[in-house]
Specification:
By secondary structure, the chain is an alpha+beta fold. Among the domains are: 226-415, Valyl/Leucyl/Isoleucyl-tRNA synthetase, editing domain (Isoleucyl-tRNA Synthetase, domain 2, Alpha-Beta Complex), CATH 3.90.740.10; 740-802, Ubiquitin-like (UB roll) (Roll). It is 35% helix and 19% strand. Strands 10, 11, 12, 13, 14, 15 and 18 form a seven-stranded mixed beta sheet that branches. The longest helix is centred in the last third of the chain and has 19 residues, at 650-668. The structure holds ligand ANZ and zinc ion.
Length: 803
Amino acid sequence: MNKYDHRPIEKKWQDKWEEAGVFHASNADFQKPKYFALVEFPYPSGQGLHVGHPRSYTALDIVARKRRLQGYNVLYPIGWDAFGLPTENYAIKNHVHPAIVTEKNIARFKQQLQSLGISFDWSREINTTDPAYYKWTQWIFLQLFKHGLAYKKEMSVNWCTSCKCVLANEEVVDGVCERCGSEVVHKVKSQWMLKITEYAQRLIDDLDLVNYPDRVKAQQRNWIGRSTGAEVDFETTAGDKMKIYTTRPDTLYGATYMVISPEHPLIEKWADQLKNMEEIRTYQAEAAKKSDFERTEVAKDKTGVRLDGVMAINPVNGREIPIFISDYVLVSYGTGAIMAVPAHDTRDWAFAKKFNLPIIEVVKGGDVEQEAFTDCETGVMVNSGILDGLSVEDAKVKITEYLKEKGIGEPKVNFKLRDWVFSRQRYWGEPIPIVHCEKCGFVALPESELPLRLPEVESYEPTDNGESPLAHMTDWVNVKCPHCGGPAKRETDTMPQWAGSSWYFLRYMDPHNPDALASKEALDYWTPVDWYNGGMEHTTLHLLYSRFWHKFLYDIGVVPTAEPYAKRTSHGMILGENGEKMSKSRGNVVNPDDIVNEYGADTMRMYEMFIGDFEKAAPWSTSSIKGCRRFIERYWNLQENLIAGDGIRPHMESLFHKTIKKVGEDIENLKFNTAIAAMMSLLNELATDGSITREELKTFTILINPFAPHVTEEVWSEQGFGGMVCQQAWPSYDEAKCKDETVEIAVQVNGKVRTRLEIAADLSKDEVLAAAKADAKIASEIDGKKLIKEIYVPGKLVNIVAK
Ligand code: ANZ
Ligand code: ZN
């Protein structure tokens, strides 16, 4: 028999699978049970595949392959999330069309993925930059527009000074641009917005319908940030009412001053009455430069300016209190104005200390002496008029009723979630299919004109005033209004990178359909995705955005379910050998091509699954990869031990059943590493035994196949087992045969052996002790005595000390 050599084997089987189309999902047989396994489609960057990518792809490949063996019609697709800034920036720098860069990058990624033997259905490959694809991204946008969920608004946006581009809040990380790390400032721009806030409550509620890890659900909830409280109107000496939002209406008596955000509209209204307008304007300008993140940091030094000339009136006690502007109050949250309760709010406390403002305690903590600035959620009301003596909880109810009665307050629910800024002033994105008409306003492009293709431009650079490069294309921009026929202009902004990935899983269901994003039958059959795996970095935005679009499509009758993904899991990152994040600058990047060349795709796959707990980060290790290679070689060599006779031999039977059970269950529970360990044990037993039957080799080969698909196909065909392994049936096991063997233990009373018991080897201590005491001999021995101590030495003996 030949020595194991991965090189000829792997290419051969990849070609055979593709030729036979064995991994193609079928849209012809909707009676068969379906399984839709999904991984996040990659952004085809110039760097090529990273060893982190195959961790997710291999894991779900194992699931997909197992499902096929279990008889499902499996959809396991892949495509390209190919619009975006890195490609555009590369195109600008090197003067090539981003479409050409994209094509080149995709070719490289595809070749790399195919070399790994992932069982993707390549006949369903999609690309978000293909007009046949983005036609439907634009179509969904038009439906949102027609339903009032897309609107244009002048707003203060995050502006990356280096990318010259508007960023969503989510793209600003720690105050800087997520992509380039440059400073982010505020700028007022007219932007397309999507009303995701309209779905905030449902995006929380429907988490009950899906199987996501708790940490993922918690992140979704936190991001949406539901908050309950009240809106309260404060009178002012200027005559205008000032509406505030508070989660603690119970602390109203402790409000000793007010703070409004520097952008609050009342400031302009009061400009004539305010004596320090100049100082106020200087402060406003400073605040505009800061990101929301910087402004609301608790630890930051508090700054502000008192409005000189207008006072507020606390509605519960009629006291006049000063009003400040301070950047820690955001214009975009609640009403952009707060009542400050320095005794019980950390930020207010810091501010009051700095500006020497009165601090009135209104909640006395329970048994612990509270720090003055603790946000106390429990305790008893003091210094609070009608609320005195009530618990915080009761005080909230009472004051809210009181405010309502007087017509000065209302209960209110707020969300942290903001509407989604949906336009970018860049070239490489989906054109927004809207026309601005002088007479008719914003007009939707007729659906028959979709896709609205990206025109060729001379330069991809944004204009200096921050408009998209499309703004230069006057031929393209100037059109007739589809509504009145008058002069109109096309929207020149494009969609953000999140657009194409918000619905891509639907396109896989029917990727070549020219008349709909997918046929009704395909959507009804394949929806929802049964298992979706992706990175933790996408559990807030991408997950939220795609859930939002899906719910909208559900509401307008396009998709049959309210949620897109029945189950979501997340993998940990693969780190460099030194335990740090892999990066060029750290010099710890491992190139998957090198690993595939040297050790083979099967070893690479096996290793990525063996590297550690799938959900946790794991450092790369070249020595462990050799262990995985050894495993495959030893499996290959089993062929030399083949003996006549068939079936699974009695002395191997229990181990086979146990291994089938364990590998199957471990795959379902993302415990790929322990599944491999179980297969390694079985291999050890078989190797030690020195012989193997055809049936044993067959069964073992099917078990390993999802992990190491190429070598298993080769062994299968080499031995003439018939057909391909990937088309066999997943082996079943008999629960009764999975029981561990029994062991004999001695049972002592006060150190003397009184009997011997035959028990199952996997019993717990309590079970063994119960069995020992239930034995007739032992029961009579300890009858009427007091049990002092019960000792169990696993698998050996029980000793009961009794007096
Ligand atoms: C009085 C008070 C007393 C407050 C107290 C808190 C504790 P959530 O919704 O949980 O984030 N607030 C309201 N609008 C704000 C804005 N635009 N910018 C900054 N802060 C704002 O918290 C809402 C609380 O944050 C509100 O309740 C308000 O302060 C502040 F012991 O009002 B509170
Ligand atoms: Zn018009």
